[in-house]
Amino acid sequence: MRKCVLLFAVVALLIPVSVVAQDPNDGWVKIFNGKDLDGWKPNEAAGEFYVNDAGEICGKGGRCHLFYMEELQEFELLIDVYINDKGNSGVYVLSPWVDNNWPTGGFEVQVNATHSDPVKTGSLYDIIKIFESPVPAGQWCTFHLTVKGNNLTVEIDGKVLYTFTDPTARFARTQGQNPQRATAQGQTQTQPPQRANFRYIGQKGHIALQQHDPGSLPRFKNIYLKKL
């Protein structure tokens, strides 16, 4: 019996973490076809995204962000992520499109095991800071991100790291481009239209993948989306 248990444990360790087992009948849709960048668009030319022979999205060169071109509001995202030693990357959600710049709106889940930036993998950049990466450099991991209501939940390799509840999202739940809120005097005030540096959970925005700098070589595969 002990030999059987040990054999099972070894086999389990050899099975790579992947989201391939997701049931497409449960609402999951594959949004990267493993062949080309159909449905995705880079926002500048300093860096480059391409699909390698293994069917992975890869980044190289200078700064660039690859946007999934459908705007989303409530959803789950599953994505396998790899970062090299000293590399830096990120997975954005709810990001407005920006030309030739860092995304200044939306939310970035950091991908960084050993880069000089102290904010490591799994952090919600500028909001929740993790200083020790839960995944070493050079190893694949699976991000499971859930955006629903006022909440963004970050899970890596089956472990929930945190749920961030955005207090500003209560102003964003009305329909249309100009959400409204009640003032202290009982009047209604219209918020400004969604802009490039505006972020709240509840806005519509894009998923985006980051190519940070020439020393970074991120890779992404098995990208699945489930709208909620």
Q: Name the CATH class of the domain at 52-167 and 196-228.
A: Mainly Beta
**Number of E strands:** 15
| The CATH fourth-level homologous superfamily of the domain at 52-167 and 196-228 | Exo-inulinase, domain 1
CATH fold assignment of the domain at 52-167 and 196-228: Jelly Rolls
Strand content: 35-45%
Structural class of the secondary elements? mainly beta
Low-confidence stretches: 1-21, 170-194
Key terms for this structure?
228 residues, mainly beta, Jelly Rolls, eight-stranded antiparallel sheet, five-stranded antiparallel sheet, 1 helix, 15 strands, 6% helix, globular, disordered N terminus
Model description:
The protein has 1 helix and 15 strands. With 228 residues, the chain is mainly beta. The chain has a domain at 52-167 and 196-228: Exo-inulinase, domain 1 (Jelly Rolls), CATH 2.60.120.560. The strands form 3 sheets. Strands 1, 3, 4, 6, 9, 10, 11 and 15 form an 8-stranded antiparallel sheet that branches. A hairpin with a 2-residue loop joins strand 10 and strand 11. The model is unreliable at 1-21 and 170-194 (pLDDT under 50).
